[in-house]
Design brief:
The protein contains 19 helices and 18 strands. With about 475 residues, the chain is an alpha/beta fold. Helix 2 packs parallel to helix 3 and helix 10 packs across helix 12.
C-alpha cells in the first residue's frame, strides 16, 4: 500500500495549432509530466484507447469535432480521465456547458502556464486522495491492520513489523530493535510483550541504560545486598528478579558499560546472575528485549561492544523504518494524535486540513514519530477551528519548507538561469531575429520560441 506517493501524470494536449500545442507540451514536460499530443479529436481518442491518460487539455476549436464533443467521447471511453477545456471564446455558455458535461475546469486564451499548473496540481491531489481511498479499501479487504498494540500505520513496512511481532512473541528469543530515535522502538517492545500470551499478564519493565551511571545501572538490573556500596542500606532486588515471568526492555543498549556486558551475556546465555555484593546465584525468568539507535556491528568493530554479546542480543532483529520512509502512514498517525490531544485538552478538533497534511508529507521528520506527535499536540492546543489549518496553528509553519525563503537555488533554477541569460544575450546580438538566434544556439525556431515563452522574454523582443 502506497497512498500519498505521487505518480507521474500522463497528459494529452489537443490543439490544431502546432506552435501552441508544442509549447504547452514542453512546459508540461518541464514540470515532470508524461505528455502526449494530438491535433484532432480523432487522434486524441486513438491515443486514449491505447494509453491510460490522466488529464486531457484540449482547445475548444478543433477540426471536425470541437472540444465539447471530444469531452463527451472522452468521458464515454475513460470516465476517470479529467478534462480541461481551453477556449479563445470567453463564453459563459461554453464554460457552463463544459462543466455540466464533466470537465474538471476551463481556461481562456492566451494560455497562462501557471494557471494550468495550478489546475493540474489540484487534479494530482484529487488522484492522490482517490488512490489513498482505494488503498485503504484494499487494506480492509486483505485484512491488514492500521493499528496494532498502540502502533499506528498500514504501510507495507509497518505491516511487516506487525507480522514479525506475531511470529516472535510466543518464543523466548532475545529481540534487538534498531532504528532512529523516535521511530517507536519502545512501542514494538511493548507490542511483543502484549502479544506473548504467557507473559502479557506479568510485568513489562523498561530500563533506559544511557540515563544511569554504571553503578546505578548494575544495581537496577541485578539488585544489591545491604552494605555492598555507600547508600545500600538494605537488600534490593533488581529488574531481572522484579520482572519475573514478564519482560525486561533494555533501551539504549549501545551505552551499556563494557564491565557489565559480560554480566548481561551470562544472563542471556545461562539465565544466571548475582546481586551486587552477593555470591548467591539467582535465576532470571524474564524475556529480554533490547533497543538501540546505533549500529552495534560498527561498535563491535570499534571494540566498544562485545562481539559475543552482539550475536546473543541479535537472535531476532527488528529494524524500525524512519517516518520519512513510511510517509503514507502520516495521515493515520496524525488522526490518532489529534483525537488523543483533543480529548486531553478538552477540545473538539475533528482533523487537519489537506494543506497541513501536505506540509507534513513534505517535511523529513528527523525526530520521527516523536517529533510528529509534538507537532500535532501543539497544533491542537493552538487551533481555533475544528479543522486545524496552517493559519490556525502557527507552530506548523516551522515544518513548511518554502524554497523561496532561502538564498540557495534549486538545481533546476541553477540550470535555468544561465540558459535564460544566454538566450537573451544571443537575441540581443541578432537584433532579436529568431531565425538567426536559433541557428547560433543550435536549436530550431519552435524550440527557441517555447523557451522564450517559458522564460517570459517575449516582451523584450518587442522593445
Amino acid at each position: 500500500m502506497t497512498p500519498n506517493i505521487k505518480n507521474v501524470l500522463k497528459l494529452l494536449v489537443v490543439d490544431d495549432e502546432p506552435i501552441i500545442r508544442e509549447s504547452l507540451c514542453e512546459a508540461l514536460k518541464d514540470e515532470g509530466h508524461d505528455v502526449f499530443m494530438a491535433s484532432t479529436a480523432e487522434e486524441a481518442m486513438d491515443i486514449i484507447s491505447r494509453k491510460p491518460i490522466n488529464v486531457v487539455i484540449s482547445d475548444y476549436k478543433l477540426p471536425k469535432k470541437n472540444g465539447l464533443e471530444l469531452l463527451d467521447d472522452v468521458k464515454k471511453e475513460s470516465p476517470a480521465t479529467e478534462f480541461i477545456l481551453i477556449t479563445g471564446y470567453s463564453s459563459v455558455e461554453i464554460a457552463i456547458e463544459s462543466m455540466k458535461k464533466g470537465a474538471y475546469d476551463y481556461i481562456t486564451k492566451p494560455v497562462n502556464y501557471d494557471e494550468i499548473n495550478i489546475i493540474i496540481k489540484k487534479i494530482e491531489e484529487k488522484i492522490d486522495i482517490l488512490s489513498e481511498n482505494k488503498a485503504l479499501k484494499d487494506i480492509i479487504v486483505r485484512g491488514e491492520r492500521r493499528q496494532f498494540c498502540g502502533m499506528i500505520g498500514g504501510s507495507a513496512k509497518i505491516q511487516n513489523i506487525y507480522n514479525i511481532i506475531d511470529s516472535v512473541a510466543s518464543t523466548n528469543a532475545t529481540i534487538l530493535i534498531s532504528g532512529e530515535s523516535g521511530t517507536g522502538k519502545g512501542l514494538v517492545a511493548k507490542a511483543i510483550h502484549q502479544t506473548d500470551q504467557r507473559r502479557k499478564n506479568n510485568l513489562f519493565v523498561e530500563v533506559s541504560c544511557g540515563a544511569l551511571s554504571e553503578t546505578l545501572l548494575e544495581s537496577e538490573l541485578f539488585g544489591h545486598v545491604k552494605g555492598s556500596f555507600t547508600g545500600a542500606i538494605k537488600d534490593k532486588e533488581g529488574r531481572f528478579e522484579y520482572a519475573k515471568g514478564g519482560t525486561v526492555f533494555l533501551d539504549e543498549i549501545d551505552s551499556f558499560p563494557p564491565t557489565l556486558q559480560v554480566k548481561l551475556l551470562r544472563v542471556l546465555q545461562d539465565g544466571l546472575f548475582e546481586r551486587v555484593g552477593d555470591n548467591v546465584q539467582r535465576k532470571a525468568d524474564a524475556r529480554i528485549i533490547v533497543a538501540t539507535n546505533q549500529d552495534l556491528a560498527t561498535l563491535v568493530k570499534e571494540g566498544k561492544f562485545r562481539e559475543d554479546l552482539y550475536y546473543r542480543v541479535n537472535v531476532i532483529g527488528i529494524d524500525m523504518p524512519p517516518l520519512r520512509e513510511r510517509k503514507e502512514d502520516i495521515r493515520f498517525i496524525v488522526d490518532h494524535f489529534v483525537k488523543k490531544y483533543s480529548k486531553i485538552n478538552n477540545k473538539n478538533i475533528k482533523g487537519v486540513s489537506e494543506r497541513v497534511i501536505q506540509i507534513f508529507m513534505d517535511y523529513s521528520w528527523p525526530g520521527n514519530i516523536r517529533e510528529l506527535e509534538n507537532a500535532v499536540e501543539g497544533a491542537v492546543i493552538m487551533a481555533k477551528q475544528e479543522i486545524i489549518s496552517k493559519e490556525d496553528a502557527p507552530n506548523i509553519s516551522k515544518f513548511y519548507i518554502n524554497k523561496t525563503e532561502h538564498n540557495v537555488k534549486t538545481l533546476r533554477k541553477a540550470v535555468e538561469d544561465p540558459e535564460q541569460e544566454h538566450i537573451i544575450s544571443v537575441l540581443d546580438e541578432c537584433g532579436w531575429s529568431r531565425n538567426k538566434a536559433a541557428s547560433i544556439l543550435g536549436i530550431n525556431r519552435t524550440t527557441l520560441y517555447n523557451k522564450m515563452i517559458k522564460y517570459n522574454i517575449l516582451e523584450k523582443e518587442k522593445k
